[in-house]
Design a protein that fits this description.
Length: about 290
């Protein structure tokens, strides 16, 4: 797949406060890319730079092969964006807001807007000021999708949606992706990232620290090991390379292991074990590994 977004050595400071620094990232056409990190890590700064809402101190962004800052008018026709916080014209009816928003695009958005309102169960005749936070978020989702963009940028998109609407939202994003839409999904809710994304970029203190597939992140991570034994030889496991957070509760031994499983199993074969459990860590636990370094 070709790169549809290319970010190179991008740096943005707010006075003396770092937004992002020397950040380079490529996003492939047709993928769903997860961009994860805690609040303040630099996710929203990166997105605002991509959208030319702010300008960098140095570095470049190319979208569709075009300079994102010099060609923002052309690029914006093919990008849908849902910000983390949505603010609209309070006295407008939803349908009038959609009509106004559609006027910025060189295509007819009526049919797709109606379809999206039905999927998300949004009443177009209500005034925006009367909407709950969740329904305002639906307005933002439809605004981002109504013109069937080639790139969809989602910044913490599920806040305010109930579990049923979250499922519909994710189904909708997967359908858009199957049609060929590239998705940048920025979130700190890691279960959502694992659910939908192909690759993931981890950002820490304004710098990209790793880009991997979800599968690679888990394969390179530790395993959680629990054994049940009364054999005193279990203590030898503590010295095995790759073992950490070793603890004993009654006859149960718990530890984390990062290394070749065949080496661990060979060592376990020397011990009389009555039960063994090897499990994957949660994505949140893997995430903390990077942030504790």
């Amino acid at each position: 797949m070709n790169n549809i977004i290319e970010i190179k050595d991008l740096t943005k400071y707010y006075g003396k406060t770092k937004g992002i620094e020397n950040l380079s990232l490529d996003i492939k056409e047709g993928e769903i890319f997860g961009y994860i990190g805690p609040n303040g890590a630099g996710k929203s700064t990166t997105i605002r730079l991509m959208l030319s809402l702010i300008f960098p101190d140095s570095g470049s962004v190319k979208i569709f092969g075009l300079d994102a800052f010099k060609n923002s008018d052309i690029i914006s026709q093919e990008i849908g964006y849902l910000p983390s916080e949505v603010f609209y014209y309070e006295n407008m009816k939803v349908k009038d807001f959609f009509k106004y928003n559609a006027s910025f695009y060189q295509r007819d958005c009526k049919k797709r807007t109606k379809e999206l309102c039905e999927i998300l169960e949004l009443d177009e005749n209500r005034k925006i000021r009367s909407l709950s936070y969740g329904n305002r978020k639906k307005v933002g989702i439809i605004q981002g999708l109504m013109h069937q963009p080639r790139i969809l940028i989602l910044d913490e998109p599920t806040g305010g949606l109930d579990p049923l609407m979250q499922k519909r939202f994710f189904d909708l994003i997967k359908e858009e992706n199957q049609r060929g839409t590239t998705v940048l999904f920025s979130s700190h809710i890691l279960s959502e990232v694992r659910r939908i994304c192909d690759r993931v970029g981890l950002i820490k203190d304004g710098q990209l620290i790793q880009v991997s597939t979800i599968q690679e992140i888990f394969s390179q991570s530790y395993k959680k090991i629990e054994i049940e034994t009364k054999d005193s030889k279990y203590i030898s496991l503590k010295e095995l390379e790759g073992v950490s957070k070793f603890s004993l509760e009654g006859s149960k031994v718990h530890f984390l292991y990062q290394g070749q499983l065949d080496v661990l199993l060979s060592k376990l074969n020397e011990i009389k074990i009555t039960d063994l459990l090897i499990s994957e860590p949660e994505l949140e636990e893997i995430f903390l590994q990077y942030y504790e370094k």
